[in-house]
Amino acid sequence: MKTKVFFAILIAAFGIWYYYYNEGSYTKTDGFELTYIDNSIIKNYNSNILLNFCNTSNSSCNQFQPILKSVYNELGNLNVKILNIDIFDNPELLNKFPISLIPIQFFYTKDGVNFKPKSEIGKKFKEVNFNDETFYYHLGILTQEEIMLIFEEMQKY
Prior knowledge:
The chain has four helices and seven strands; from the N terminus they run H-E-H-E-H-E-E-E-E-E-H. It has helices at residues 2-22, 39-45, 59-75, 144-156; strands spanning 33-34, 48-54, 80-86, 104-108, 114-115, 126-130, 133-139. By secondary structure, it is an alpha/beta fold. Strands 1, 2, 3, 4, 5, 6 and 7 form a seven-stranded mixed sheet that branches. Strand 6 (126-130) and strand 7 form a beta hairpin. Helix content is 37%, strand content 22%.
């Protein structure tokens, strides 16, 4: 009985330590998913970035995941990052990004500048001022071809 109590306390202590140690930090999962991000992290990547906010209980988000993973597998080694964040697990990010609906995507150049395509796809992007900053974003699902064209245009930026 004492052994079971000891292991239960040990497991609980580890869980508490892990929660507080990782609070407010970010972790990468195969370079595809994050749990936290801000402008300094975006700039530190020194890569073109697609930042997607989603949630696993949202059907549109779930439909979008295979597209994102396919693009990531094709472009992941070309100085391109696709970062997925579950906004329900990270509600504090609602204070950093203008998120009203999901899925929502923000693109960033390797210099950390929020990017709006000048091509035809750019007409699908919206602009909003939030926290004294202008954001360009896309709501909903982009096709693989559209994402590839955006990254291609970003390479010329």
